[in-house]
Amino acid sequence: MKYAENYVYMYGQMISTCSFLLDGDFPKADGTAEIKEKYHLVGGETGTAAAVLCSLNVPVKLGGTHLGSGNEKLIKDYFADKTADLSELVTEGFEGVTDYVIIDKNTRTCFGEWDKLYSRSEPFYEQPRRSQ
Predict the structure, then answer these.
(1) CA–CA separation, 64 vs 129, rounded Å?
(2) How far apart are the first and last CA of the chain?
(3) Is 23 helix (H, G, I), strand (E, B) or coil?
(4) Separation CA 8–CA 92 (nearest Å)
(5) Between 123 and 42, the higher pLDDT residue
(6) 57-79 as b/e, with b when 16 or more CB fall inside 10 Å?
(7) How many Cβ atoms from other residues are within 10 Å of residue 37's Cβ?
(8) Is the distance from CB of 97 to CB of 117 less than 8 angstroms?
(9) Is the pLDDT of residue 2 over 70?
(10) Most CB contacts within 10 A, which of 20, 64, 78, 119?
(11) Which positions ≥6 away from 39 have C-beta within 8 Å?
(12) What is the DSSP string of 62-115?
């Protein structure tokens, strides 16, 4: 794909999200619930916003958190035929970050390991680029 001269530069979390839609209400403590549907999609504030902009054919360039082995293929495959430039994204040999979202008919609850991105002295993200 040829990248546009003008684009929206997006910097932030590029993770994957596993979403589970329950077939009823979120269970009480020590209870159970049936999963009605499940999805594994592009996530993070940057990944989600970029997916929306690409659906509107807005060119985007993505930067931010490093991709890991658990989410690299999903993210790259998703954006492969979209208006997204992934050239600034770095893949590093770690698992990556996935969040888990449980959804019932009234609530949405997120569980994640976001501290993985910021918990080591060598960060799992690139500094934003001021010029391109």
Answers:
(1) 10
(2) 18
(3) coil
(4) 25
(5) 42
(6) ebbbbbbbbbbbeebbebbeebb
(7) 10
(8) yes
(9) no
(10) 64
(11) 17, 18, 19
(12) EEEBPB-TTTHHHHHHHHTTTTEE-TT--B-SS---EEEEEE-SS-EEEE--GG
| Structure confidence by residue, pLDDT tens digits, 108-120 | 999 998 787 777 7
Structure tokens at 48: 């989600």
Cα 89 from Cα 66, distance rounded (Å): 6
Closest CA to 91 of 124, 126, 67, 122: 67
State the DSSP code for 40. E
CA gap 128, 125 in Å, rounded: 9
How long, in residues, is the chain? 132
Element containing residue 45 per DSSP (H, E)? helix 45-55
Q: How far is 72 from 42, CA to CA, in rounded Å?
A: 10
For the sheet with 108-111, list strands across it: 35-43, 15-22, 98-103, 108-111
